[in-house]
Structure to design on (983 residues):
């Protein structure tokens, strides 16, 4: 057993249990936040200590411990920490189950960490379910009608997606006789193209996998749940869903498609094209439907569908480029980090504002530039970053990901993507306009807690840093992109 | 390494902006002074650079005051700054306008803190465009300008300001989206983002991934939106008209010059053969811009809108000069950018004063103001005469050189016909400028304007500065053309002429 390499996960699960137990005994619930953050920090500490080491597989080649997995683990831990910091105000209003809230966030983080590390179909499914089930509960945490509806909708559609995914896995297994990704790859490469093409099993299995994972990353046409769930869920959980859950989905897609179906080249061109088409549809639909939205959480829901479209440009590049070319993968990782910081920043600002307003309507943000100048400035920066205007991180991320696409003959997709960026400017800037140009509804200031300010400052700082000096993060992403294949 | 002059010039304004935005409790008075100081120092520095700029024949094609630091190793991008004869005059122009617009904005009292912060950020971004020698850096500065301009128009503007502001943003982003696709294609066909290397290597570096022509046009669209070239011009009248006075001055004075500068620096320098091949088409667009712009200007009844439309016509001369592709015509185009920046800047400043003092900008309602505001009338007339190209103003020098250069160009077939057509633009210009001056300042004195005041001392100060530079360049254009020539000669070398 290689338990030593499993320490980040083990420590996190220990802290998650500790949070639940602690909740029973203590009155001052503030300690729960401290313990949760400590758990994340400890786990991150172990992960950092392993960074840069040689890649290994543990538990009979079920889990990989490579830089790719560690990169994502650190990303998830960071996101979870920011979400927990931003949740404190929100959760302190709950009468009960505060401990469960934090514990479930930690457990879903654990699920995502496993998702980034698994290299075997069954454990992929289990990791995915651990993540999803925690999230179903968190989405319904408010227990009002919208939140319950969101939770039920997420659960039902999620269950369908899981079934589709399982069916896809079964087909792939039936075709190759293996569940371990590296062995699947070997089995496929051993066959002649005629064998593969003679039966639709493998291609159909791949398509079903795309559908099952597409649900996680909110790719059109598997995006139906997004606006309702984003609107109904507690705002910190919406933030968490929109960044961590999506990043985990991309991690697993990269892992599966790159490791198992990366070769031969004609196969990867096939799924590359699927992702390219989904990407074009996703960003166009997401951006156009976002324009008429009046609720900011719904708008960001559609915006996240569009962002998933930009991210899939990266997947298409991975499919179109030779396996040795890492630009597709590293640009995807960089985009995920930039997107996570940006979207978290936007949602944290929204959490602070909606705590005061008890409303998520864009019109109610009127005059926010006067009532809460710093919050409004932070939200403006994040929206500019989502549009992809320098000097924010979103620009560098798009530049990097599109550069790979242009290099591999996807100029048509890049042109669709840049035109989409122009469309998106319209609705992102509408929020900016309302905040700075509108008249304030009341003169009351909007207060925010210290924890929330820390989280917001960290994400905005990150957005600016990645936008102005992206070199270091690109270097890290390149190291992580050299994925280990068994 | 020598003192980083360009970095200092570019980033002083944004340092001022950060100071203004984040230091709590500043009074409006103090904010204005900070803004003035943080724009005056770059002006002084850029004039100093102009003075010590090496103008000898050995400096042809050499970028001076160069700074280069690796920025993003993964994509071979550098923080690379430098100026040559082409960009230095534009840097001087921008710092000049940057300082004067702070004075022009002295009476703004709505949300003063934000106003000056955005104005200073705008100056940084435009200066960055003129100094960048790396395409990614160039693009970053190019894009940063959108946000401050959006706020300046939509908060401190007038009329349909929010519509105009978002229209400006969408047009600009559309243009820059095309440009981004072009830059990426260029990067992957050549593996370089350095404008210097790309210009020196020319098309020899281009491999077979993509032919040069589509890249040329992707980039050209980005610049053509900004210049603007008919039919991509419709954002301009709205944005110029509804922007606050300072916004209009910067827009017309420096911002649209980014388009012309980009065409020379990127399209012509990197793609000389493609530029040569398509020059007849682009020259035709130039003539359409000149004549259509001038014709539409004739029937404007709004003072600011009239000046805005005249810019389209005058930028047509720039396009004509650039794609006539002769040494004299390119020099003329560069000089026309400088001269138009001053003259239209002054026109907008004067229109702003008329608007502010008389509280009216509809030409049908104005009249006889020469009696109430004699100084403004004189300066406005000088600017107007500059615009129609009267000798001793910079407008004459620039347009004369452009036309001579175009007419004698051998690079484009049929250029003489186009040039003659474009010269008619001047006749129309004379028509609308004189008509405008007559409507505003002459004719019967109107009772309702009896209490209207003339310029105060501050306003006289900046008017004088504008007029002095316009006259200086008009009487002694060699002060600029000798410098511009240093930047144009290497391009002629690339064109093989």
């Amino acid at each position: 057993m290689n338990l030593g390499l499993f320490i980040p996960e083990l420590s996190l699960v220990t802290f998650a249990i500790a949070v639940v137990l602690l909740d029973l005994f203590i009155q001052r619930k503030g300690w729960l936040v401290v313990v949760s953050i400590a758990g994340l920090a400890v786990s991150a500490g172990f992960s950092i200590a392993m960074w840069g080491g040689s890649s290994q597989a543990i538990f009979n080649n079920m889990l990989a411990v490579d830089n790719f997995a560690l990169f994502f683990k650190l990303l998830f831990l960071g996101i979870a920490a920011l979400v927990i910091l931003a949740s404190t105000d929100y959760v302190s209003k709950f009468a009960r189950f505060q401990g469960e809230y934090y514990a479930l966030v930690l457990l879903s983080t654990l699920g995502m960490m496993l998702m980034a590390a698994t290299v075997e179909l069954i454990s992929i499914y289990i990791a995915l379910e651990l993540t999803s089930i925690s999230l179903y509960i968190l989405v319904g945490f408010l227990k009002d009608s919208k939140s319950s509806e969101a939770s039920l909708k997420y659960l039902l559609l999620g269950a369908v997606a899981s079934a589709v995914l399982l069916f896809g896995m079964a087909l792939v297994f039936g075709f190759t006789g293996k569940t371990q990704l590296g062995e699947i790859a070997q089995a496929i490469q051993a066959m002649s193209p005629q064998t593969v093409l003679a039966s639709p099993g493998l291609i159909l299995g791949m398509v079903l996998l795309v559908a099952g994972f597409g649900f996680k990353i909110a790719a059109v046409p598997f995006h139906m749940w997004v606006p309702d769930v984003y609107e109904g869920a507690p705002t910190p959980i919406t933030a968490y869903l929109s960044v961590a859950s999506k990043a985990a989905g991309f991690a697993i897609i990269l892992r599966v498609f790159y490791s198992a179906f990366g070769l031969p080249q004609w196969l990867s061109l096939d799924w590359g094209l699927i992702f390219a088409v989904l990407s074009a549809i996703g960003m166009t639909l997401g951006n156009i439907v976002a324009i008429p939205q009046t609720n900011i959480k719904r708008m960001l829901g559609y915006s996240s569908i569009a962002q998933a479209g930009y991210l899939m440009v990266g997947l298409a590049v991975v499919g179109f480029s030779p396996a040795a070319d890492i630009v597709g993968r590293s640009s995807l990782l960089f985009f995920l980090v930039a997107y996570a910081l940006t979207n978290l920043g936007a949602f944290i600002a929204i959490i602070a504002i909606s705590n005061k307003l008890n409303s998520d309507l864009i019109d109610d943000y009127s005059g926010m530039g006067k009532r809460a100048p710093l919050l409004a400035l932070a939200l403006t920066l994040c929206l500019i970053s989502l549009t992809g205007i320098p000097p924010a991180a979103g620009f560098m991320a798009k530049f990097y990901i599109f550069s790979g696409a242009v290099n591999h003959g996807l100029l048509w997709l890049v042109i669709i993507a840049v035109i989409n960026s122009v469309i998106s400017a319209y609705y992102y800037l509408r929020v900016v306009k309302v905040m700075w140009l509108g008249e304030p509804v009341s003169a009351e200031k909007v207060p925010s807690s210290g924890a929330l300010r820390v989280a917001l400052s960290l994400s905005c700082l990150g957005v600016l840093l990645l936008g102005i000096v992206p070199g270091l993060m690109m270097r890290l992403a390149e190291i992580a992109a050299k994925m280990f294949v068994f | 390494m020598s003192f980083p002059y360009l970095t200092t010039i570019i980033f002083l304004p944004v340092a001022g902006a950060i100071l203004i935005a984040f230091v709590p409790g500043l009074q409006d008075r103090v904010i204005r002074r900070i803004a003035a100081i943080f724009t005056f120092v770059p002006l002084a520095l850029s004039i100093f650079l102009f003075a010590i700029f090496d103008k000898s024949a050995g400096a042809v094609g050499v970028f001076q005051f160069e700074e280069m630091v690796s920025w993003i190793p993964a994509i071979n991008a550098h923080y690379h700054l430098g100026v040559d004869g082409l960009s230095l005059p534009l840097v001087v122009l921008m710092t000049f306008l940057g300082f004067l617009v702070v004075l022009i904005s002295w009476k703004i009292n709505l949300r003063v803190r934000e106003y000056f912060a955005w104005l200073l950020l705008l100056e940084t971004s435009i200066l960055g465009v003129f100094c960048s020698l790396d395409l990614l850096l160039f693009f970053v500065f190019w894009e940063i300008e959108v946000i401050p301009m959006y706020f300046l128009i939509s908060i401190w503007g007038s009329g349909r300001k929010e519509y105009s502001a978002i229209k400006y943003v969408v047009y600009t982003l559309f243009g820059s989206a095309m440009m981004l696709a072009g830059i990426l294609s260029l990067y992957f066909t050549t593996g370089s983002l350095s404008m210097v290397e790309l210009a020196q290597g020319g098309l020899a570096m281009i491999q077979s991934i993509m032919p040069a022509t589509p890249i040329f046009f992707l980039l050209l669209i980005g610049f053509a939106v900004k210049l603007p070239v008919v039919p991509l011009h419709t954002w301009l009248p709205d944005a110029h008209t509804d922007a606050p006075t300072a916004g209009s001055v910067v827009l017309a004075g420096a911002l649209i010059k980014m388009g012309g500068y980009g065409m020379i620096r990127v399209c012509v320098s990197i793609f000389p053969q493609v530029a040569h091949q398509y020059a007849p088409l682009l020259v035709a667009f130039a003539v359409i811009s000149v004549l259509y712009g001038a014709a539409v200007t004739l029937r404007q009844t709004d003072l600011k809108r009239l000046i805005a439309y005249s810019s389209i016509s005058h930028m047509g001369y720039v396009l004509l000069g650039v794609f006539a592709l002769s040494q004299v015509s390119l020099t003329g185009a560069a000089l026309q950018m400088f001269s138009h920046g001053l003259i239209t800047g002054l026109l907008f400043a004067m229109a702003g004063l008329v608007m502010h003092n008389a509280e009216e900008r509809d030409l049908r309602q104005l009249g006889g103001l020469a009696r109430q505001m004699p100084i403004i009338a004189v300066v406005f007339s000088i600017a107007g005469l500059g615009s129609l190209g009267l000798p001793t103003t910079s407008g004459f020098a620039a347009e004369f050189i452009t036309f001579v250069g175009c007419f004698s160009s051998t690079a484009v077939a049929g250029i003489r016909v186009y040039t003659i057509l474009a010269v008619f633009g001047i006749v129309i210009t004379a028509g609308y400028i004189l008509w405008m001056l007559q409507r505003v300042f002459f004719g019967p004195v109107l009772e309702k304007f009896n209490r209207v005041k003339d310029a105060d001392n501050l306003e006289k100060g900046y008017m004088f500065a504008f007029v002095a530079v316009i006259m200086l360049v008009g009487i002694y254009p060699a002060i600029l053309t000798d410098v511009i020539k240093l930047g144009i000669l290497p391009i002629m070398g690339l064109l093989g002429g």
Remarks:
- The first helix of chain B runs from residue 5 to 22.
- Chain B has a mean pLDDT of 91.
- Chain B touches chain A at residues 70-75, 136, 139-140, 143-144, 146-147, 150-151, 154-155, 162, 166, 169-170, 173-174, 177-178, 180-181, 184-185, 187-188, 209-210 (CB under 8 Å).
